[in-house]
Amino acid sequence: MRILRRSMLFIPGNSPNMIQNAGILGADSIILDVEDAVSIDEKDSARNLIMHALEEVDFYGCEVVVRVNAPSTAFGEKDLREITPKRPDAFMIPMATEEEIRLADAIISEIEKEEGIEVGSIKLVPIAETAYAVESIADIIRTSKRIEAVLLGAEDLTADMEISRTKEGGEIYYARNKIANICKAFKIQAIDTPFADVSDSKGLIEDTLKGKSLGMTGKAAINPRQVDTIHHVYTPSQEEIQYAKSVIDAMKEANKAGKGVFSFEGKMIDAPIILRAETVIRKAILAGMLNEEAMK
Amino acid sequence: MKINKVARAGTMESSDIFIMVQPGDNQGLDIRLSSVVIDQYGNHIRNVIMETLKSMNIEDIELTANDRGALDYTIRSRVETAVKRAL
Amino acid sequence: MKNILGREIPDSVTLPNRQIRLFSGVQVRHEDVVKKSVKTRVADPTEGKVIHDIKKAIEKSGLKDGMTISFHHHLRNGDYVMNLIMAEIAEMGIKDLSIAASSIFPIQAPLVKHMESGTVTGVYAAYMSGPVAKAISEGKLKNPAVMHTHGGRSRAIECGDLKIDVAFIGAPTCDPMGNINGTEGKSACGSLGYANSDALYADRVIAVTDNLVVYPACPIEITQEYVDYVLVVDSIGDPKGIVSGTTQITKDPVGLKIAKNTIRVIEASGLLKEGMSFQTGAGGTSLAVASYLKDIMKEKRITGSFMSGGITGYLVDMLDEGLFKCIMDVQCFDLSAIDSLKRNKNHQIMSASMYGNPHNKGALVNVLDIVILGATEIDLNFNVNVTTDSNGYIMGGSGGHSDTAAGAKLSIVVSQLFKGRLPAVVDEVTTVSTPGETVDVLVTERGIAINPLRQDLIEKMKKHNVPVMTIKELQDVAEKMIGKPEKIQRSDKIVSVVEYRDGTIIDVVYQVKDQ
Predict the structure, then answer these.
(1) Is the Cβ pair A45, B78 closer than 8 Å?
(2) Is the pTM of this model over 0.90?
């Protein structure tokens, strides 16, 4: 986990007003979208606008991801070829299959070499949005070393499954489970599908918690107003951080005293609890809630 | 590069610029600009458009721009797209 | 001569009946001031006050060439009163009048032709927008318009700097003896706070009503002993223009980001506590600040003392939810505010003098904790322009801006760092409306700057991990994105004199260059 991706915020790729303000909206990642947000007639202008934006707009340290069209399409190939030289942090690949990822990886590698960019530095985030992709996600992840996260795309997935998409999300329980578990196995991030009803803040909290409870590590947002809520769910609370710090401190004490197993607040502390505490601390540091120095 | 047909790019939304290009009448770079910030940035915007056209080796063009407060990157991009569409 | 802010005030600037004093800092001198004596025509008990003919009312008022007449702006962009009266005055051939309106709106467009014909040669206002402001900017008014603050207008009227010969007071409900009530009637506008000084200090006062009721018109806002005549007309205003629809909290992510940053400043300032007082405008971003404030006050179980200024439904909801104990209302912006005024005894009307007059025995702004303000431009010394736009046209005015900035413990200017490529932070503002000495914080979507005069605030921000920048750094952030605008050309003719709330001259506005 190099960077935190609690939230990944979609920004329409042909809107200068949204693009130049994207970096101040608080999201960990922003996704400049040339796929669904852009009509067929405007793919060229959005692509060009994103190229210029990557060169000139300050995104204030946000991770900048470009969602391209599927690499096997003419649009997608052009997106990758033309945008790679402008060095986005990552590309998001829709309708992911092994073949799409292989294609994307090959094109990016080719351009990286041509442009003198370190090969492999541009990352990939496949979207699992078909029944096939959910089922084959492990194979898809194995296809490229560039993959750092997988986004679950529930709208297309449920369409593919011919089932209805509900607010409660019972229909994507399996997909969330599967994606979360496999991503954890590969030590990459699992990004939950966005919550569609922008005005329902309570629904957003519930939906985000649902994803988190199954092991998702972040969530896509389709409106800047969703970012704070998502962060609230995916950022360790002050209580969690305090507890984790205490566990680590107690562990250090125990180590000094040469004790392997120790108890803290009357509870035996073993490896899983320490691991959990360490994860909380790492997230808190990445979220800027803890000073790294203070933990040394 | 030669402009062969009428083409457009951009929108009339805030922070965007709408560009329309068409083949010139051997008058060189003929730019007609209207802008919500014409007094403050008119000359600058005109320069950005000129430079973009020159960098694309366009020598003869009629370009109409309606600016809604676009930043330079947007102006460059919309001019490029309009020209590419007109080639 | 240059004033203390370095603004050139040419010696040619003159004001009727008084000496020019240049702005020399906001410090209020605790000295005796004398209010003007008021001429009162003793009423004839056998004669009624009610008149049904506009011309007759004007004749009875004794209006002559060269006089000053006043209007209030509580009917906002639905006001028919000024247009009705001015049309008749023009017809009667009276010339060279000055209009002292608390504010001027687009609906008052007919004033432009009265300016061109010489019927009107002077204008006083705290705020103006629309065709009249444009015409004045283009030099169509004979004498420079005097722009003051809401509190400054009361001060000027009370001390006689601004002598009103006849006040025409739009009265949503009125009785035959001239008792005025703002909350009832088809043209209800709620508070009549800006008309109060006019009623008390004008030589003649005419209530203009479209809802004459049986005596007495309770609850009475302006009482009969100040009113000479009651002029009854068909309609004093268009309800659609009087009250706006409910103002919505902004959905613009940039506006929300500004509001969030503002809340961080408020939290870190230490003023977010039991008994706090708060004022904000009716704009979408200002309301977003109120909305976030509401959440935090609920969470921390804080009850504030009062909210003040122009009142919207959003503030009414906060009152109803018990987050504040009172509303002090100088002007109602919407129906919900008027309704609250009628039903809630903790929603109280205040006069403009009580609100912001610096030369009385204490204005409300002096006990205000936090005010959220706007800005068209702000310079590196935090001087704010809310009077002219970036092309030099008048499009606003201080209103209560300078009054609240001077009084509040924490005055926060909220603004996009640039809008349509025009920067908020500039080397030199087109017009100084409010002196930087009274502006504590600038909050933008890309950063927060604290006035170096407020080292205490800078320390508090540091302590609470609120990132602050210098205002110069903020300017640099903007210029990196938008470049530096060219300076606007203007002519040498002065079209407006801008008064600070104490009556000193803080700036002048020049005629725009011919287009």
Answers:
(1) yes
(2) yes
Count of beta carbons in the 10 Å neighbourhood of residue C261: 23
Backbone angles phi, psi at C126, to 5 degrees: -95, -15
Token readout for A260 is: 């392997």
Inside any domain, residue C498 = no
CB contact under 8 A, A49 and B76: no
Looking at residue C12, the DSSP 8-state letter turns out to be T
Query: CB–CB of C480/C404 below 8 Å?
Result: no
Answer yes or no: do C293 and C232 share one domain. no
Domain membership flag for residue C327: yes
Q: Give burial (CB, 10 Å; 0-12/13-18/19+) of C343.
A: exposed
- A58–C480 CB contact, under 8 Å: yes
ipTM of the complex: 0.97
Give the integer Cα–Cα distance in Å for A20 and A225: 17
The three-point CA angle C84-C87-C90 to 5° equals: 150
For residue C492, which phi and psi values (nearest 5 degrees)? -95, -5
CA of residue C273 relative to chain centroid, distance:
28
Average pLDDT over residues B61-78: 97
Using a CB-CB cut-off of 8 Å, the residues of chain B touching A83 are none
Tens digits of per-residue pLDDT, C357-392?
Answer: 999 999 999 999 999 999 999 999 999 999 999 899
Could you tell me if C209 and C100 lie in one domain? yes
> Pairing mode, if any, of strands C377-379 and C425-426?
parallel
Question: What subunits touch chain C, counting only 3 or more CB pairs under 8 A?
Answer: A, B
Task: State how far the Cα of C156 lies from the Cα of C15, in Å rounded to an integer.
Answer: 12
Q: Which residues of B touch C483 (CB under 8 A)?
A: 41, 44, 72
**Distance between CA atoms of C309 and C352, rounded to whole angstroms?**
9
Q: Which of C281, C197, C189 is nearest to C238 (CA)?
A: C189
Which architecture characterizes domain B7-86 according to CATH? 2-Layer Sandwich (3.30)
Whether B69 and chain C come into contact, CB under 8 Å, resolves to: yes
Could you say which DSSP state residue C128 is in?
B
Q: In this complex, do A17 and B81 lie within 8 Å of one another by their Cβ atoms? A: no
Q: What residues does each domain of chain A span? A: 7-234, 238-295
As a whole number of angstroms, the distance between CA A18 and CA A224 comes to: 10
Q: Is B12 on the interface with C (CB under 8 A)?
A: no
Question: Cβ contact (<8 Å) for A49 and B74?
Answer: yes
Cα–Cα distance for residue pair C74/A221, rounded to 1 Å: 43
Tell me which of A24, A58, A226 to substitute to probe the interface with C (most C C-beta atoms closer than 10 Å).
A24
Residue C461: domain span: 253-488
Residues 6+ apart with CB under 8 A from C189: C74, C75, C76, C170, C172, C182, C237, C242, C243, C332, C338
A7-234 under CATH 3.20.20.60, yes or no: yes
Instruction: Give dist(CA C513, CA C248) in Å, integer.
Output: 37
What string of pLDDT tens digits covers the 515 residues of chain C?
Answer: 899 999 999 999 988 878 899 999 998 788 898 899 998 999 998 999 999 999 999 999 999 999 999 999 999 999 999 999 999 999 999 999 999 999 999 999 999 999 999 999 999 999 999 999 999 999 999 999 999 999 999 999 999 999 999 999 999 999 999 999 999 999 999 999 999 999 999 999 999 999 999 999 999 999 999 999 999 999 999 988 887 666 678 889 999 999 999 999 999 999 999 999 999 988 889 999 999 999 999 999 999 999 999 999 999 999 999 999 999 999 999 989 999 999 999 999 999 999 999 999 999 999 999 999 999 999 999 999 999 998 999 999 999 999 999 999 999 999 999 998 999 999 999 999 999 999 999 999 999 999 999 999 999 999 998 999 999 999 999 999 999 999 988 999 999 999 999 999 999 999 998 75
B81/A45 touch (CB, cutoff 8 Å), yes or no: yes
Please list the residues that pair with B33 across neighbouring strands.
B65
